């Protein structure tokens, strides 16, 4: 018995030490009072392995009350390394053009441990050796297995309150993973201490999304007042509606869809070929018809978004060594699965169904937040979903204030531990656009405090 315990301990700490990150250029981790681990978590399903980065909190590490936050970026097919290096991590590229990392004063690890996962396994540095085509249900199964693998390697965090957070397509990943956790806990007597979820500009009803995008664009004068969107209001899956979308993308070509008042980075040739541009937008505006395989092959990068700094950084051999990732892999923001195509099938009706199921349990805090300058998953789309869910308003729409009592945005409280909040002037990547407000909302929510 004693022998087994010792062996287990050696094994556990062996893995942690192997994955310990000592240096993250230009930062020497010995200068900080928290550790970062990076490496792979493997599951036997199709021999997949998932790259993870675990960032310890700046709070006391022995305190089991410090929350653990699992962060997922969206896509589907985009890497959570942008969450780590651009949004909520301790070291970020503060400005689009920065070539070196800076310390992030508003890092979410000031309030929680952070686990970034490159999922599904075709994304970023993760391995999908059998080239499987992903779907929502199976991704949720995989994410649960990876989380269990994390706990078996880092058992000291098993008791900490767990929160799931992320943005965009993670609006599908997160509720589905939460549902898997609930089902697992029902069988195993609550071993995963899930407390809540925070979803930023998250997808809910993909079928409705194109309508919201068009209404939002009209409301913000990105389309001419005479622009007719009635074909989509009539039938969102019709070819006429598809044409309306294409026309809208051509008209709004140099507007950053993720941050309509922000800068749009582009290369001249990107905009010349209208058909290319439409294909490009189609992948990123998340237009899915039922059961259509979404093949992501992002030669053009994300429309209007500049991420050369992260791409250069993560493709640097020395950085790859520090992060203990497969050096033969070229990292892309959105896969391009290791120079192949990334395939994902969405199941649009599933997300709303699962969200309702989670709300019915009345067990988990759910925060839906939206940067109000995003046209990809506009705040009105989240509002539309809220109207369809069976919940009641318990606190009327009201402003909240941050940064010397300036307007932060608006919030509304609902039954079943649900809250909606907007972040004024922020785009799709809220924590990148407004670090102060995002951290404030995050910290208050973790602590169950009002804002
Ligand atoms: C980081 O700092 C430690 C302690 O000062 C030092 O021993 C180590 O060589 C440094 N690492 C690098 C890569 O500079
Ligand atoms: C997984 O990898 C192992 C070891 O390389 C191999 O023996 C096994 O056949 C693989 N499984 C599948 C499903 O490919
Ligand atoms: C770690 O350092 C930060 C920043 O200097 C400080 O706020 C925090 O209290 C420290 N944490 C611990 C556990 O000492
Ligand atoms: C997966 O795709 C890669 C690249 O196209 C190919 O080399 C490999 O053989 C494929 N693996 C399987 C199991 O089909
Ligand atoms: C998702 O993929 C799994 C594994 O390939 C398959 O068994 C399942 O039927 C798929 N689900 C849907 C909704 O397509
Ligand atoms: C999703 O949106 C479509 C299109 O507007 C609508 O027909 C459907 O009822 C919505 N589903 C839910 C669950 O709200
Ligand atoms: C919407 O358009 C699609 C594609 O043309 C068609 O299959 C479907 O029946 C239409 N739905 C309605 C309600 O007209
Ligand atoms: C998080 O919120 C608590 C309570 O509102 C506050 O005391 C604490 O200073 C906040 N943490 C940080 C890092 O700002």
UniProtKB/TrEMBL annotation:
The stretch of residues making up the signal peptide is 1-17
PROSITE patterns recorded for this chain? CARBOXYPEPT_SER_SER
Tell me the keywords, alphabetical order.
Carboxypeptidase, Hydrolase, Protease, Signal
GO BP terms in the entry:
proteolysis
Keyword Isomerase on entry? no
Enzyme Commission identifier(s): 3.4.16.-
Which Gene Ontology terms cover its molecular function? serine-type carboxypeptidase activity
Pfam families from the UniProt entry: Peptidase_S10 (PF00450)
Cite the InterPro entries for this sequence. Answer: Peptidase_S10, Ser_caboxypep_ser_AS
The entry sums up its family as follows:
Belongs to the peptidase S10 family.
Protein name (database record): Carboxypeptidase
């Amino acid at each position: 018995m004693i022998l087994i315990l010792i062996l287990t301990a050696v094994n556990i700490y062996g893995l942690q030490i192997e994955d310990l990150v000592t240096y993250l250029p230009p930062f020497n981790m010995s200068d900080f009072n928290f550790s970062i681990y990076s490496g792979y978590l493997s599951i036997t399903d199709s021999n997949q392995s998932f790259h993870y980065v675990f960032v310890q909190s700046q709070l006391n590490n022995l305190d089991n009350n410090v929350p653990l936050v699992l962060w997922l970026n969206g896509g589907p097919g985009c890497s959570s390394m942008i969450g780590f290096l651009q949004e909520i991590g301790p070291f970020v590229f503060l400005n689009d053009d920065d070539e070196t990392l800076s310390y992030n004063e508003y890092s979410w690890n000031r309030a929680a441990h952070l686990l970034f996962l490159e999922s599904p396994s075709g994304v970023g540095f993760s391995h999908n050796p059998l080239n499987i085509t992903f779907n929502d249900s199976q991704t949720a199964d995989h994410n649960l297995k990876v989380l269990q693998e994390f706990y078996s390697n880092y058992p000291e965090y098993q008791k900490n309150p767990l929160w799931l957070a992320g943005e965009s397509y993670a609006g599908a990943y997160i509720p589905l993973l939460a549902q898997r956790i609930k089902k697992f806990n029902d069988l195993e007597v609550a071993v995963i201490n899930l407390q809540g979820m925070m979803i930023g500009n998250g997808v809910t009803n993909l079928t409705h999304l194109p309508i919201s995008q068009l209404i939002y664009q009209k409301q913000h004068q990105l389309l001419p007042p005479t622009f007719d969107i009635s074909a989509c209001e009539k039938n969102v899956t019709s070819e006429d509606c598809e044409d309306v979308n294409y026309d809208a993308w051509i008209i709004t070509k140099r507007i950053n869809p993720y941050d309509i008042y922000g800068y749009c980075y582009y290369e001249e040739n990107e905009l010349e070929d209208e058909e290319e541009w439409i294909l490009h937008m189609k992948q990123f505006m998340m237009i899915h018809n039922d059961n259509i395989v979404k093949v992501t092959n992002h030669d053009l990068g994300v429309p209007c978004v500049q991420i050369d700094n992260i791409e250069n950084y993560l493709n640097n051999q020395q950085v790859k060594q520090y992060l203990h990732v497969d050096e033969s892999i070229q990292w892309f923001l959105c896969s391009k699965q290791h120079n192949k195509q990334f395939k994902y099938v969405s199941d649009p009706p599933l997300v709303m169904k699962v969200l309702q199921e989670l709300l019915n349990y009345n067990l988990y805090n759910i925060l839906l937040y939206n940067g109000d300058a995003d046209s990809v998953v506009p705040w009105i789309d989240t509002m539309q979903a809220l109207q369809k869910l069976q919940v009641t308003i318990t606190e009327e729409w009201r402003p909240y204030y941050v940064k010397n009592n300036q307007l932060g945005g608006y919030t509304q409280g609902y039954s079943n531990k649900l809250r909606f909040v907007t972040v004024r002037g922020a785009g799709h990547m809220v924590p990148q656009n407004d670090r102060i407000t995002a951290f404030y909302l995050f910290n208050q929510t973790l602590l169950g405090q009002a804002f």
